[in-house]
Amino acid sequence: MLYLGSEITAAGGSAGNIMKIGFDVTTAASQVMNGFKVKIKNTTATSISTFDAAGFTTVFDGSYSVPGTGVQYITLQTPYYWNGTSNIVVEICFNNSSYTSNSTVVATPMSGRNVHGHSDLSSGDGCTGITSAGSSYTALPKICLEVTPATGTELIGTTVPETYSLSQNYPNPFNPTTKINFAIPKQGFVNLKVYDILGRVVKNLISEVKAAGYYSVDFNASELSSGVYFYKVDVNGFTDVKRMVLVK
Predict the structure, then answer these.
(1) Residue range 47-66, pLDDT digits in tens
(2) How far is CA 65 from CA 28, 103, 143, 144, 245, in A?
(3) Does 141 lie in the same domain as 176?
(4) Are residue 136 and residue 19 in the same domain, yes or no?
């Protein structure tokens, strides 16, 4: 399902982390969907006609059954950062060998924005085993997005870095503000924290999903005492630590 960035902003959306996706359900089937996955990716496309598996981030993976009618939200296990402008593709798949009934949702008549495929598979994973779109729907499901605004961390330019990195803060020593730069080549959940010399967390600078890019963070240590501190970044399995000195 393809949704345009302009449609999201026209409805009041802004850049931030997508935390939930909701559908307005008109009839709810009770069947549990196994291997239920929700995937999202950014795109510049304005229409779709085939399945394209590349570039998706899996934001929910588990079992799911539609709880009832009306707007029903799926809480994402991994929030997805939306930059406020890109179009997004939402893919939903599940992995049952057969079905007993269907749920239906409110949709808007629209061509070229929704493709579908299904098959009763005796084995394997339907989310990967079905590769061809069986039909192109002429209606696009309406969705509700719960978006949490991102922090004031500054994204520098539009270039995507090739490697992960954490730079030395500058100035260093500092009083009381300094900049911390880092780079991530792939979207991920970023934790950036400041620790004192005893290993206690004194400031949580970032704890949210960030898109790939170069970032600069302003750290104000006005409430801290002079001394040695450490800052650590964790994202997508990458970890690095740097030392800094506050002198007042």
Answers:
(1) 998 888 888 889 999 999 99
(2) 9, 10, 17, 18, 53
(3) no
(4) yes
- The whole domain housing 200 covers 154-246
Residue count (the chain): 248
CATH number of the domain to which 195 belongs = 2.60.40.1930
Let me know whether 108 and 14 are in one domain. Answer: yes
DSSP characters over 55-123:
T-EEEEEEEE----SEEEEEEEEEEEEE-SSSEEEEEEE---S--S---EE-EEE-SSS-EE-----SS
pTM for the complete prediction? Answer: 0.69
Q: What is the count of structural domains for the chain?
A: 2
Cα 96 to chain centroid, rounded = 26
**Tokens matching residue 110:** 């629209």
Residue 247 reports pLDDT greater than 70? yes
Residue 104 token pair:
């239906």
State residue 126 phi and psi, 5-degree precision: -65, -25
Q: Mind listing the pLDDT tens digit for each residue in 165-215?
A: 999 999 999 999 899 999 999 999 999 999 999 999 999 999 888 989 999
Query: Which of 127, 149, 171 represents a domain boundary (last residue)?
Result: 149
